[in-house]
Amino acid sequence: MAVRLLPPLLALSLLAASAAGAGELVIDFPGSQVEEATVSYRCGSVEMDVRYVNAGPTSLAIFDWNGDRIVAAAGISASGVRYVSGRYVWWSKGGEATLYDEMAGENAALLATCAERR
After folding, report:
1. Least CB-packed of 5, 15, 49, 50 within 10 Å?
2. Widest CA span of the chain, in angstroms?
3. Contacts for 76-81 with beta carbons within 8 Å, 24 or more apart?
4. What domains are there in the chain, each with its CATH number?
């Protein structure tokens, strides 16, 4: 896992889902030190990189899924860290993570079960 410290102004490049091309989002975290770590996962036959960004009380997980860029924010969790973006939930704990579609219902199959690549 690579850890990199960034200045308080963080630029996140977001790939737009439309044909309009790439977009960029800049989030300012005044007075907070920003930490970024990229973790590589194996999710079945798929390899996936997740960029974790922490700045003060804000924690994000950024990854690509089915051609979309997902930017998920951490929320309350009894165990591990639960990141939510729209219908997607990325739940990481230790070296494992799961991705599921919250709109699919509680008995729906997980979209991905992942293990950290070391």
Report:
1. 5
2. 43
3. none
4. 2-116 (2.40.128.200)
Strands 96-101 and 112-116 turn out to be antiparallel
Tally of CB atoms within 10 A around 57: 8
Distance, in Å, from the CA atom of 43 to the CA atom of 30, rounded to the nearest integer, reads 36
Q: pLDDT tens digits, the chain, 118 residues: what are they? A: 444 444 443 443 333 333 345 688 888 888 889 999 999 999 999 999 999 999 989 999 999 999 999 999 999 888 999 999 999 999 999 999 999 999 998 889 999 999 999 8
At 108, list the tokens. Answer: 């729906």
Alpha-carbon torsion (107, 109, 114, 81), positive or negative: negative
Is the entire prediction scored with pTM above 0.70? yes
